[in-house]
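Re: the 306-residue chain
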Amino acid sequence: MYEIVRYEGGVYKNNIFKEWIEDIGGFIIQEHVMQLDVYMTLAIPQNELENIKEEAKKYKGKIIETPLAGTEIAVVAPSLSRHHLPHTACDISEYLRRFGAKPNMIGLARGVGRDIAQLREKEKRLIEEHDLAVYVMGNFEDCIKNKTHLFDVDIPVVVTGGPEKIDIPYPYVGNLGRRSHRLRHGEEIRALRRMVEVITELINEKRRELSYDPPIVPPVVVKDEIEKQVDEVYSILSPMPIVTQLDGLRVKLDYDKYADKIREVKVKNYMLKDIADIKRSEMKNYILIKIKPKSEVEFEMHKDKF
């Protein structure tokens, strides 16, 4: 198992530090160099966490633990109109980034109206491609209670809204309703912190479930092999050409052009098509990879013996 952390430091002997990361079996997921400062997202073996903290000090840097790193989170608003998508959704999305998550903003096509709001099947499939969904709702308790059918997706859900408390069968964080200003006041920052605590608890619960029957190969290993074997990844202009999830990846290449090449990527002793479901994403025709559990792959390999 790998731990994903963030490194912040300078360019001083940075190449030597990166070689040390590779020597312990770690991976550099993302790197940003800004003048004399270096910011890296790293995946390292769990037993090396304390060692890398000490090693980072030698290069004038520090390791910051990011509890949501390696996750992709959907931030869902009832619509993209100014009525439903003010600063709150933007600030929530930005706050999640600070803790390592990759958020995607999603506005529903028919999410408006207390009694007529609907969740399209395509939107449901798109939301379920993520590890978790945060629904950014408004200030009216009655409206939120009448829209709980929007939250009916097969991934963990956290609902935010204006009322401090509300009786719905989903984890709820209050004091995050519509605002005409950025979330900078004390009670608003505290609400954002509570939201991250609730999300972290759900993500950790999902990680524990996966630990009983983990993916046959960690997503960061698959990401590293795709980068080595698929040169087209380096032509992607997005800051994160490959996004890691708890049990898979999103590759921002056109499915019709590159899916077959992705299927033929060799990962350890396997072909990727044999250990993962590779399908078309509902997001911009990207490639979505869901890695199969270890037990499923081993059963398929030895089913002739049963």
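The domain at 72-209 is CATH 3.40.50.2300 (Rossmann fold).
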